[in-house]
Amino acid sequence: LAELKGIATGIVSTGSLTDALPAAGYANVVEQDWEDDASVPADAAGCEDIASQFVSFGERVLARHDRAIDGIELAFGGGRQHFLPNEASVDTTDADTTAEGLRADGRNLVDEWQLAYPDGSVVTDSAGFASVDSLPVLGLFDAAQMHYEADRANDRAGEPSLEQMTRRAVELLATDPQGYLLVVEAARIGDAHAAGSAASALDETLSLARAVSAARDASDPADTLILVTADHAHALTISGYPRRGNPILGKIVAEGKVDPALASDGLPQTTLGYPNGRGFRDLGAETDADAAYAAPPLGGRQDLNAVDTTSAGFHQEVLVPLEATAPAGEDVTLHASGPGAQRVNGVIEQNVVFHVVERALQLFDLPGEEVTR
Question: What is the band of 315 on the pLDDT scale with cuts at 50, 70, 90?
Fold first, then answer.
């Protein structure tokens, strides 16, 4: 709708640009894992994969609405492997495998995007990101998800932070006199929870907070509506009676005590925990939460007496061992500032968020069309 109205559009994600949330803006598929053609099953032949739909977005809108659009002006994130063929000749300097791409059809969607936007920029590293000064731009900074913020320095080619991508996106999109619609996803919060790392999840949440601050600093609050919410909760629990000032990642120490409080099994416990997931890991200073997947799930209590539970590589104990921590069912919060924020109050259904955005940008009022409400 924003594209049909001539409003600039942008997507920023620390996950893949073909993940469910970013893809919801430009793709239609029945299975969110169909990120490239190799992931589309044989019995679904003819269904266009998500990465391909990113490139064909303009053509599909034109065919459906008989109205030309200029396409997504800005996209920053990961997911490079879904755009590239399974050929070593197209690997970037950031590739971790012999053939970085996953596509089986031989198409190089990065080249196709560049052909469609000859004046556009394709960037894959920190140096390229720093050089971006115009639209359109496609930034693919990692083969899959981008690095966790705590692990970002380990990216060999360098990649921008969520804060940096958000700030630059606002600065570039704000030059459009018709306004803009920008979707920013702090995707790695959920990934950290799935891996059972409360430390990484909290660190990624702080990264989101910095991105929100960057968006506020780079925009005018008089004409910019900012919404902050989540797609779902995760099963992280906060329990026990730790003393005031006790580290949130530490073991529970009762008020007036020095040593950790012991449960009825004689073992200490942490304030934060997960009811299910991959379970306990003591990986020391490891900053990549996904390192938890190197070992099978481990359920049950562990002796944490000699374990530094505040370290980056500590993963909480779980009751039920699963491949990943499951999402939870709590309502999530929705925060708003700017024009239209008054529509956000009380308990609302999630579909109302769309209408808040629509009214702020008047997306139904398309040029040359009369809309009856």
Answer: very high
Q: Cα(181)–Cα(10) distance, rounded to whole angstroms?
A: 6
Are residues 172 and 215 in contact, defined by beta-carbon separation less than 8 angstroms?
no
Contact 278, 322 (CB under 8 A): yes
**Which residue matches tokens 């099978």?**
296
Partnered with residue 121 across adjacent β-strands are 137
Element at 314 (helix H, strand E): strand 314-315
**162-173 vs 198-218: helix axis angle to the nearest 10?**
20
Over residues 319-355, the pLDDT tens digits come to: 999 999 999 999 999 999 999 999 999 999 999 999 9
Q: Smallest Cα–Cα separation from 74: which of 34, 33, 123, 111?
A: 123
User: How far apart are alpha carbons 359 and 349 in whole angstroms?
Assistant: 16
CA angle 258–262–264, rounded 5-degree value = 160
- CA 303 vs CA 103, 250, 259, 313, 346: distances in Å: 46, 14, 15, 16, 44
| Closest of 179, 177, 178, 200 to residue 189, by C-alpha | 200
Beta-sheet pairing, 74-78 with 121-123: unpaired
* Coil, helix or strand at residue 59: helix
What is the phi/psi pair of residue 350, to 5°? -65, -30
d(CA 287, CA 154): 9
Other beta carbons within 10 angstroms of residue 19's beta carbon come to 24
Local structure of residue 153 (DSSP, 8 states): G
Category of 46 on φ-ψ map: left (φ > 0), alpha (ψ -120 to 50) or beta: left
Helix, strand and coil percent figures for the chain, each rounded to 5: 30, 15, 55
**Cis omega before residue 136 (within 30°)?**
yes
Name the pTM for this structure. 0.96
Identity of the amino acid at 212: V
pLDDT of residue 332: 96
